[in-house]
Amino acid sequence: MAYQDIPKPIRSGIVVVDPERGTPQRIIVLQFNPDTLERSIAPQAAGSGGDAGGGGSGGDRNEALRLKGPAEESWKFTAEIDSTDQFEIAAPDGIHPQLATLEMLVQPTTAQLREAVRLGRRGTIEISPIETPLTLFTWGSKRVLPVRLTELSVNESAFDVHLNPIRASLSIGMKVLSVSDLPAGHRGADLYMAHLAQKERLAGAARSGRLGDLGLGRGL
């Protein structure tokens, strides 16, 4: 097989979307796909006394098998940024631009902060919290989901002569935003429903086992 016949690997990444128009505002392609993904899925059990995992006792027995809504899902992974193998590309700022792009996912813009200050000076009683753009995490075509970054930890490990970082490891945590988190009609809510429908299709394609494999008879 010739090298040109080898499929090019798909990169994971983050897409910042205009929630009104649905157009991408910025696409962040991770330089290297993370080696591992840590996913936590906690069911929203009804009658669990606020315990998302449903581990509480004393709840209504009629609610034992009921769900209040979609499971609460979070993702965590480590991303690497390394410019040491890209010296043919002029990078006077090292990897500052890549780091700043990720950090701005959890920061308001200067324009938004100035507007908040302006409203405060005008005596506005209630100032709404600053809204960030819709953020999507993509891991191949079967995982495109709306998220909110909950953690961004940066470990810079190499620098150039001007002390610009040229290598860093980032610990990124995300909360999947479901229809329980977003208002009805929001583009993110529609994307979550599409993500959930994809899960349903994949679950339907899984081969079912047999009771005999579990040492059980025809009936339970």
Brief overview, please?
The chain has 220 residues and is an alpha+beta fold. The protein is built from 3 helices and 7 strands; from the N terminus they run ββββααβββα. It has helices at 96-103, 110-121, 187-205, and strands at 13-17, 24-29, 38-45, 67-82, 134-138, 144-159, 165-176.
Task: Please describe what this structure looks like.
This protein is of the alpha+beta class and 220 residues long. The protein has helices at residues 96-103, 110-121, 187-205; strands at residues 13-17, 24-29, 38-45, 67-82, 134-138, 144-159, 165-176. Strands 2-1-5-6-7-4-3 form a 7-stranded antiparallel β-sheet. The model has no long low-confidence stretch (mean pLDDT 86).
Distance between the termini: 53 Å
- Structural class category: alpha+beta
How many helical stretches? Answer: 3
Helix residue percentage: 10-25%
Report strand order across the widest sheet.
Answer: 2-1-5-6-7-4-3
The overall pLDDT average reads 86
Gyration radius from CA atoms, angstroms = 23 Å
CATH class of the domain at 14-44 and 66-84 and 93-108 and 131-202: Mainly Beta
Unreliable stretches (pLDDT < 50, length at least 5) are none
Which strand-content bin applies to the residues?
Answer: 25-35%
What is the string of helix and strand elements? EEEEHHEEEH
Overall geometry: globular
What name is given to the CATH topology of the domain at 14-44 and 66-84 and 93-108 and 131-202?
Elongation Factor Tu (Ef-tu), domain 3
Major sheet attributes: 7 strands, antiparallel
